[in-house]
Amino acid sequence: MVEFSLWDILRNLLLAGRWTVSLSLIAFIGGGVVGLLLLLVRLSHNPAARMAVGAYVQLFQGVPLLVQLFLAYYGMGLLGINTSAWVAAAAGLTLYTSAFLTEIWRGCVESVPRGQWEASQSLALNFREQVRYVILPQAVRMAIPPTVGFLVQVIKGTALASVIGFMELTKVGKTIANATFNPFLVFSCVALMYFVLCYPVSRYAKSLERKMHVARP
To answer: Are 1 and 182 in contact (CB under 8 A)?
Structure first.
């Protein structure tokens, strides 16, 4: 058994927290970029493209994130790609995030009254101009609170990256718990770290929701 003081535990978890935050931001930003591209495809007039994006969303929403991370890690190896736990975790979480953000944003776009589409069309705007100048500015207002709120799910989802060896909060916590034989104290500290990361984001999302007068579903 290795002797760890409470400060030693917190210090090591804080260092691991940097990787949790980094992975969360990469997955959230990358997922946002991919999700926006998928949203534009889903709003297009191409039925085949819309069906393909719909299938993508259903696939990543229907398969547990844990399984997706395993597939990303071992699948890249089968394809001959020499990857690391970091790359696999980032790729898996990015695809997972993109599917959910696409669906969140699609709902916000569809909540824009149909008359706005008709009015913009009467102004002789093409599809791209309709989306850019009329629809998206209105949808963004409704999309910001749930998008920020989903960041909480991404942060918590990074804990599953520990199963493929990525050294984030949960993985480091498990390592320390195995060394100290004091899992309750260690994982209490891990839980506190996640709370400190997630609670401000959650409160900020609720604050945005109130400010923008977005009704709860």
So the answer is: no
